[in-house]
Amino acid sequence: MRPDLVIRGGEAILPAGHAVADIAVTNGAITAIGSDVQDAAEVIDAHGLVILPGVVDAHVHFNEPGRADWEGWDAGTRGAAAGGVTTVLEMPLNAHPPTITARDFDAKQAVAARKALVDFGLWGGLVDDNLADLAGLAARGVVGFKAFMSESGVDDFRRVTDGVLAAGLKVAARLGGGVVVGVHAESHEMVERLGAEIRAQRQVDRLAWCRSRPAAAEVEAIRRLVSCVRGAGPGARAHVVHVSSAEGLAEVHAARERGLSVTAETCPHYLAFTEEDFERIGPALKCAPPIRDAASRDRLWAALLEGRVDLIGSDHSPCPAADKQKGEHDVWQAWGGVAGIQATLPVLLTEGVHARGLSLERVADLSATAPARLFGLYPRKGAIAVGGDADFALVDPLQSWTLGPEQLHTRGGISPYLGRTFRGAVVRTVVRGRTVFADGEVVGTPGWGTLIRPDAKHAN
User: Fold this and answer.
1) 143, 148, 149, 151: CA torsion to nearest 10
2) Could you report the per-residue pLDDT of 185-222, keeping only the tens digit for each?
3) Which one of 90, 193, 308, 412 is most buried, counting C-beta atoms within 10 A?
4) Virtual torsion, Cα 108, 113, 119, 123, nearest 10 deg
5) What does the alpha-carbon distance between residue 235 and residue 65 come to, in Å, rounded to a whole number?
6) CA distance 253 to 235
7) In whole angstroms, what is the distance from residue 453 CA to residue 122 CA?
8) For strand 261-266 and strand 311-312, is the pairing parallel, antiparallel, or unpaired?
9) Model pTM?
């Protein structure tokens, strides 16, 4: 059968390494990789480009239904397409209602199916009173359950106590081969006490936010999470989201050394920015956990290069511009979240490949293969291999460029990456054989994205 699409002459990052190769695509799947691939109706010339597996962003907040004015599936997946992201795993908490029941899952899927330009999976939520709903969410096909050990900032998505977290881990372990529980790990008691003390002293400068949420709060919470995993018994799987410190990663590593199933992600903003940047940029860079100092950033990079980071997730969490701007003179008033879905590959290429010698194979693993494996989407997603979905990020690894407002695809128009210069640019994004971004323009069609459910046989 003649393929629908051939990508010719690019340096493909394959599971076994990298090679200049032609890639054939038929009916949205990869059907051949080699040097003698026949012609097709559509041919993409990739000479001089690197072909990466499309990014699987395991941590995004699109806030729809209910808060589409914050971002929505259209704006969010336009940004995904521009960033080489071909699959997003969307978080449960900022929508109205949050995804904590099967009915909520259905409502979110219905909206996403109409609007998404890229493929998507959905997280379910673990809160203080929905243990009985977890089985129904798993049956719908959630990629995992998200829980907060500190306050989420959203009234209808409540944090869990250690007892509920342990119970949730145990329930999740029994569902469909073991569903992962993703955890925001900051000590509620520590950040509440420090935050109250600092606010009582009328400290409203930007670094007051950082002082209120030290790395020690992350470390303490991860230690308690590890105890919960141990207590939940065989099959319990925890994933620590947005780890901001090498000390936090060390706790995860120690847990794995003891045979526990605990993984960790970090985010591009922790790898790209420091507290000095936060002082300069302001509320656009407010997030939780907060941005750390330069020495902490460098230790985080060292841990990543040593293999202690499992995957990169953007934690894309935008809001209306006004909710950032009102924190210009009082950091406590600003919404905490970074608009960064377009930044994962540019940061890994610029700060990783070019600045620190990170290999392109490791970029592919951190951004695509590892998240696909962890959430049961591999081998359909996450690798350039025959039989998998034809999801690609075509990258010019040497192109220098600066992110300007006209290139930013987020509804609020605010991102700490605006004005930042990168080396390495996404020039084309392909989702199941169809180009959704090319030559600086989003060309995808809303509704092209489809729901991806995990296959428990492949989750690890």
Assistant:
1) 180
2) 999 999 999 999 999 999 999 999 999 999 999 999 99
3) 90
4) 10
5) 33
6) 18
7) 8
8) parallel
9) 0.98
